[in-house]
Amino acid sequence: MIVAFSVTPLGVGEDVGEYVADAVRVVRESGLPNRTDAMFTSIEGEWDEVMDVVKRAVAAVEARAPRVSLVLKADIRPGVSDGLTSKVETVERHLARDDG
Fold this sequence. Notes:
This protein has helices at residues 17-29, 47-62, 83-99, and strands at residues 2-10, 34-36, 41-44, 67-75. By secondary structure, it is α+β, with helices and mostly antiparallel strands. It has a 4-stranded antiparallel sheet, with helices on one face. Helix 1 runs antiparallel to helix 2. The longest helix is centred in the last third of the chain and has 17 residues, at 83-99. The protein is globular. The termini are far apart.
């Protein structure tokens, strides 16, 4: 499964990058395939391991913020691995065909 999620601390002002970095650090230290962009962090693995990482990422932000918002989207597709890479490669292949 792939989970895309965003953890936002509330009540800490507008500059939240330091708090978000705490969450991303947890994800990166998990060893699971992951990517972070301007809006979400995506992580790939089995249900229990992915949800454990999300829970720990939220806890890392919650430890320093009075309130936390979590947005989560999951692609649950048994038997698929390396989806973080293969989904993007498929789109890029179609775009390259359009350019040629």
